[in-house]
């Protein structure tokens, strides 16, 4: 039974007497989804995840080939492979970003050193 917000507010009962009507906090609902269905994957766009392109295509094909079976674990193995690929991709991106930030830091420090020496 779903009650709209105005009916809930105008009810005689207080909020503490109707705890089942209060909406779940966003973090709790996400946690429940992750608990029961595993982590949600990011949008499956190939241009954002070139390392996982083959697995993404296979996963999408599995979902289109098994419209009902996907709810009963038909594509679970591919989902696990996809999650692993995303984790590996994240590690690679993190390393590249770290290297890039170190190079930027070195160039900034060199620039600051030049300006400090030139100003004296």
Automatic annotation (TrEMBL):
It comes from the Eukaryota. GO terms for cellular component: mitochondrion. InterPro entries: Cyt_c_biogenesis_Cmc1-like. Keywords: Disulfide bond, Mitochondrion. It is found in: Mitochondrion. Pfam families: Cmc1. PANTHER family: COX ASSEMBLY MITOCHONDRIAL PROTEIN, COX ASSEMBLY MITOCHONDRIAL PROTEIN 2 HOMOLOG. Belongs to the CMC family. This is COX assembly mitochondrial protein. It comes from Vitis vinifera (Grape).
